[in-house]
Design goal:
By secondary structure, this protein is an all-alpha fold. The chain has one domain. It is 74% helix and 0% strand. α6 runs antiparallel to α7. It is elongated, with a radius of gyration of 18 Å. The N terminus is likely disordered.
Length: 179
Amino acid sequence: MVGKDNHPRMTVKPRNHPRTRWLWFKVGGRAIANSPRGCPTKFEIEVTWFILQHTLTRKHRFLYLGNHFNYGSKVLSITTKVVVQQAVFTPVFNTYFFGMQAILTGQPPSGIVARIRHAVPESMVNSLKLWPAVTAFSFAFILPQYRFMFSGIFAVCWQTYLSFLNRREEKSSTLVEEI
């Protein structure tokens, strides 16, 4: 079928939707963390969908960075974009991710704060090992319309890591509560 702009319409099948893929990597993160259940429950799937619906997407972050901080020097522009990504977007996204996971799984306020306090610093340190290089390479060599797809390759592994870290923190908070 051809749309108004004479381009074939592309439909995204549910199994190929980015959020569906993220859910499967959440399952992978749980398997890596040796979850006794193996697969997420229906409630956990709903929690995941809620979080994904309310998260500033990677696409919007790259669009924002691509449209701002453009200076005469390409090196200065890319460096500024990397710093803004790491200093602003990373702490906000990671705090939101771990906080919402804790809230939606029924943690009390002290548990939410503890999850954020333990998981966010570690995730930010590990973020420095991956995202500055991906962001710099993306803005230096990838055309704007393909940056989202390029970063998506790395985001799949990153989301699996965040799910693993969240599960580990969840298990450690359960052990503390039992003691």
